[in-house]
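Lab channel / #folding
Pinned by the channel admin:
"Please post every new chain as: sequence first, then the structure tokens as a reply. Keep commentary short and put observations after the output so the thread stays searchable."

First post following the new format, from NK:
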Amino acid sequence: MSRYFTDQQIDTAVRLANRAPLRKGFAVAERYLRRYSQCTFGVESVNVCGIGQSLRYLNLGDTYDRTVCRYAGEYFAASWGDWLEAQEREYDDDNGTVGCGYCSHHTPIQNDDWRTTVCESCGHCVSGG
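Reply from TO:
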């Protein structure tokens, strides 16, 4: 649940976005939500591990607030932070990598132990130890 909007308001915004032309969905959703609060900060995006499509989302001020998201041409309601973490876990599982606790780079697990893996990008131990 968002600090500013109810789940029902977010769900309605998603339905309205999905009915609008793809390029106008966020504008329609934001216009609807602004009836209830001025707390929207525009559309932003994140990319999973630098590959594939980006998730676009309506920024409501908190990474874990439920919001209007779009991925692969479909609008849906989710916390973009939770969505990104799940995508990164799946990417790491599929590719035998681990995200660095310092720089977030995804590097191959070394010696079958992520806890002793040294990041290819920053040189720190990914576990922070």
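NK: Strands lie at 43-47, 54-58, 66-71, 74-79, 97-99, 106-108.
TO: also worth noting, Helices lie at 7-19, 25-33, 80-95.
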